[in-house]
Design goal:
two-stranded antiparallel sheet
């Protein structure tokens, strides 16, 4: 289980600080009441010494409250362990585990189960259970002390108490871990919903803006197509190729503006076939760009969604002047891991659309992230000296979702 953020861990340290203070005050009142009735099990100085020790872990909080998450987790574990050890020492002075206050040991266990991962919680539970078992044999009380009968128990009764304590500690640990996992899942779901809502709003704005631009482009594009039809072929092969490419681009822009996507949401296509179609689609934009497919797995993906994803990644590669794209896919348990890499040489100011380096990825990135999010996936971009890598992870079930 992943670690809680630094703020959450600090909040748990604050709660432990308050509980520790309450416990010290309650113990002080109990000892004061015992002194008033001449029933105190220890001298006053000894009691003050142990109450000071019980409060001692609180001294760590103030100088360390601004530490990072990993340090906060270490400190919280240290404070819980110190609370258990110090209370076991006091418990030994009071006559062992027969004392009714023994079950205060479950409070640090509960705090740990709600705030720490299992690997850190397990040693804390073992420390409490083993310490409780050892304290069953501690009877330093004088033979004729008023509370002696409270601690005089049979071995069978002591073992029974130890088993009950161990079971309660284990149950508290399991419930705390389950609550942690449920809370983290709820936070992730809320974060995903919020991200999708923000991206959806941005997409509405982009869609309205693009609709206006498409309307403005329609007339000059029609004029451009008429002019290219009237132009005579160039005198050399390079000019002829340039003219043909201009005609192809103009026709493609016209088709794109007029296209009505009639594909059914359930239509699925192998990734390798989608990449082959993308190679043909990008030929007019970048004749030298080659797409290489290396597998090893070839999942069936939602056609419309992945055409949008691959198209925007391809446009980004074209803007960067890439000459090749490399696609790989493999299955990892219940997820498809898909990586699309290109060798676009310009990698400065990657997130600044005004820079001209890898321009166009501003809107394209939103489209890719939004589409992946609708499939339950996520995107991770890595920019190296020569290669740009887009790593996409989607659930196997999400790849077939409508």
């Amino acid at each position: 289980m992943s670690s809680l953020p630094s703020v959450a861990l600090l909040a748990w340290r604050q709660r432990l600080l308050v509980l520790r203070g309450i416990a010290v005050v309650i113990f002080a009142l109990l000892f004061a009441t015992a002194w008033a009735h001449s029933l105190s099990p220890m001298p006053a100085l000894t009691v003050l010494f142990w109450l000071t020790l019980l409060w001692l872990p609180s001294a760590l909080y103030w100088p360390t409250r601004h530490f990072e998450s990993n340090s906060q987790q270490h400190l919280l574990t240290l404070e819980i362990g110190a609370d258990i050890l110090l209370f076991l020492g006091l418990l030994h002075q009071l006559g062992g585990s027969g004392n009714p206050v023994t079950f205060y040991l479950l409070i640090p266990v509960l705090i740990g189960s709600l705030s720490l991962p299992l690997l850190r919680l397990a040693p804390i539970i073992l420390l409490a259970v083993i310490g409780y078992g050892l304290s069953l044999r501690g009877h330093p009380m004088p033979e004729h002390h008023h509370l002696h009968d409270l601690h005089d128990m049979s071995m069978t009764h002591g073992i029974g108490m130890w088993l009950v304590f161990s079971a309660m500690a284990a149950v508290l640990g399991g419930l705390g871990q389950a609550l942690q996992k449920a809370a983290q899942q709820q936070q992730q779901q809320q974060a995903t919903k919020l991200t999708l809502a923000l991206q959806r709003e941005r997409m509405y704005e982009i869609a309205a803006d693009l609709a206006d631009r498409a309307h403005e482009l329609n007339t000059p594009l029609t004029t451009l197509m008429l002019l290219t039809d009237d132009l005579e072929p160039g005198q050399n092969e390079a000019q002829q190729q340039a003219l043909q490419q201009i005609k192809k681009l103009a026709n493609r822009m016209s088709d794109t503006l007029k296209r009505n996507n009639s594909e059914t949401p359930q239509q699925r296509t192998p990734l390798s076939q989608l990449l082959a179609e993308q190679q043909r689609s990008l030929r007019a934009l970048a004749p030298t760009l080659k797409i290489h497919w290396h597998g090893p797995d070839d999942p069936m993906l939602v056609t419309a969604a992945w055409q949008r994803i691959l198209a925007n990644l391809g446009y980004n590669a074209c803007d960067a002047g890439a000459t090749q794209m490399v696609a790989r896919c493999q299955r990892d348990n219940q997820h498809w891991l898909i990586q699309i890499s290109d060798d676009g040489p310009r990698h400065n100011n990657l997130h600044d659309d005004s820079s001209g380096d890898r321009s166009g990825m501003g809107i394209g990135l939103v489209l890719v992230e939004t589409t992946l999010a609708s499939l339950g996936g996520n995107l991770e971009l890595t920019f190296n000296t020569r290669w740009t890598q887009a790593r996409m992870t989607i659930p196997v079930s999400g790849s077939n979702a409508p």
